[in-house]
TrEMBL record:
Domain Blue (type 1) copper residue range list: 69-180
Protein name: Azurin
Signal peptide: 1-23
Record bears the keyword Metal-binding: yes
Single GO MF descriptor: copper ion binding
Keywords for the protein's UniProt record, in alphabetical order: Copper, Electron transport, Metal-binding, Signal, Transport
Disordered: region residues: 24-51
Pfam family, one: Copper-bind
CDD domains named in the record: Auracyanin (cd04233)
Length: 180
C-alpha cells in the first residue's frame, strides 16, 4: 500500500520535469529583453521613460480655507524648467469635510474648460476629464491629507494653468505654472 502512495507522490514531480520550456535564445536570456516574436517587428518592447538624468524639481502647494469664500491655493504661481521631472507635494490644510481638493495642470488658459468638464466626470473619475488639455493631475486630497504627484513639465516655455476641479472650487482655486 505504501508503494502505491509513493508512486502517486512522484507523479507530479515527473510531470513537472517533462514539461520544461524550450531553451531560450541566449542573446535574449542574457539581456532579459522581452520581444514580440509573433510579428515581423520583433524589436525590444519599449518601457517607461528613463528620468534618471532629468533635472528634478520639488514643489509644495497648499490648499487653504474651510469655506467656499476662504478656499485658495497658498500661491498663484509655480515655476519649473522645461522638461523637468516635477515632484509636487500637495497639502490640503482644510479641516472640514467639504474641503476636498486636487490640483490639475492644464494647457495654457484651459483651466475653466477642464474644471467644467470635470463636473460631468464626477467623483468616479476623480473629477478629472480625459482631455488632451490635461497635463497632469493629483488624486483628491481629503482635509488634512497630503498627496504627491510626479510628472514631466512641458518642453515648451510658457504660462500653463493649474486648478482644483472639485465642483465650484475652480472659481477661486486656480493659478499659473510658468515654464521658463
Amino acid at each position: 500500500m505504501r508503494k502505491k502512495y509513493s508512486y502517486l507522490l512522484l507523479l507530479p514531480v515527473m510531470l513537472l520535469a517533462c514539461n520544461q520550456p524550450e531553451a531560450e535564445d541566449s542573446s535574449t536570456k542574457e539581456m532579459n529583453i522581452p520581444t514580440d516574436s509573433s510579428s515581423v517587428a520583433s524589436a525590444p518592447i519599449a518601457s517607461e521613460t528613463d528620468t534618471t538624468l532629468q533635472k528634478k524639481q520639488e514643489l509644495t502647494l497648499r490648499a487653504l480655507g474651510n469655506t467656499l469664500d476662504e478656499i485658495r491655493y497658498d500661491t498663484d504661481t509655480l515655476e519649473v524648467e522645461p522638461g523637468a521631472f516635477v515632484k509636487l507635494t500637495f497639502v490640503n490644510e482644510g479641516t472640514d469635510m467639504p474641503m476636498v481638493h486636487n490640483v490639475v495642470f492644464t494647457e495654457p488658459g484651459k483651466y475653466k474648460q477642464v474644471a467644467l468638464a470635470a463636473e460631468e466626470v464626477g467623483a468616479s473619475g476623480n473629477y478629472v476629464p480625459n482631455s488632451p488639455a490635461v497635463i497632469a493631475s493629483s488624486p483628491m486630497a481629503l482635509p488634512g491629507q497630503t498627496v504627491e504627484l510626479e510628472f514631466t513639465a512641458p518642453l515648451k516655455k510658457g504660462y500653463y494653468s493649474f486648478v482644483c476641479t472639485y465642483p465650484d472650487h475652480w472659481h477661486k482655486m486656480h493659478g499659473v505654472l510658468e515654464v521658463k
